[in-house]
Amino acid sequence: MVGIVEVSPRDGLQNERELLETGAKIELIERAVAAGVRRIEAVSFVHPKLVPAMADAEAVMEGLTRAPGVSYIGLVLNRRGFDRAVAAGVDEVNVVVPASDGFAKANQNSTTAALTEVAEEVLAEAAGRDLFASLTIATSFGCPFDGEVDPERVVEVARRGAAAGAKEIAIADTIGVGVPTQVRTLLDGVRAVAPEARMRAHFHNTRNTGFANAVAALEWGVDWLDSSNGGIGGCPFAPAATGNIATEDLVYLLHRMGHPTGLDLDALLPIAGFLSDALGYRVPALLPRAGAFG
User: Fold this and answer.
1) Separation of alpha carbons 7 and 201, rounded Å
2) Residue-wise pLDDT tens digits, 191-230
């Protein structure tokens, strides 16, 4: 069974113009959990002035009714974020490193090499605390500043992350430019240098290739796929981005292909309406418009 990591409370909301109140974020998370989600990227511990949508991370974690068997994930970029995540009681941390220097410069005023060193420190600390930690390699498929990204850059970040203690490695199509042939190439490369790590993939549907990429990853044998309720989210450096692949649409696709996910599609569908009302526009997910079949 392929697992689904719900990312709407973090990657979905972080770039939205409408800043949701803490209570609305908690409701979103608890609705997703009620629909069967068992891993959810609930918050990120980043500088509140740089990402105002995530400024209430501690309050969200404190206000949640924690469901048994659910892993609440906190995204971190550095040791300070990691310490905040541990204090807030997350079940796992997700460390992000971009594979391209252009994105690293624009997003964090740094380089891939420098941010990999930071990630190594955080991953080692998490391993020492027996806290599950994943490494997401952003811009694995392409960069808005540097263009094409050499797969070897992705593989090298994965190699160093695995050596430092990453239990899971994700390739991320941050700006939605990837195609299925890239998916297979990158997953093969990462598996070669991180044979013990779980494999996860994160796709955006900016150019309508996100679901094709998800199927390619599924057929390759990936362990987990990221998706976002309503298909919300995106990158501030990807103009006209439509967002992450939608959880509802992905679940429908997987179920029709005979792959169980543990998620209840009937319970997922109303979340898109909740998000549309909260954000003030109709979210991109298509299944809530057309309805399920069969």
Assistant:
1) 12
2) 999 999 999 999 999 999 999 999 999 999 999 999 999 9
In the predicted structure, residue 235 carries a pLDDT above the cut 90: no
Residue ranges of alpha helices (H) inside the chain are 22-34, 57-63, 79-88, 101-108, 112-128, 151-164, 180-193, 210-220, 247-256, 265-279, 287-290
> What residue segments make up the domains of the chain, in order of their start?
3-290
| Active site (annotated) includes residue 143 | no
| SS3 (DSSP) at 256 | helix
Q: How far is the C-alpha of 215 from the C-alpha of 137, rounded, in Å?
A: 20
Tokens at 293, concatenated: 């079949």
Catalytic entry in 235, 253, 263, 278: 235
Give the model confidence (pLDDT) of 52-103 as tens digits. Answer: 999 999 999 999 999 999 999 999 999 999 999 999 999 999 999 999 999 9
Fold designation for 3-290 = TIM Barrel (3.20.20)
Measured CA to CA, the distance from residue 217 to residue 207 in angstroms comes to: 17
Q: How many CA atoms lie within 13 A of 46 on its CB side?
A: 19
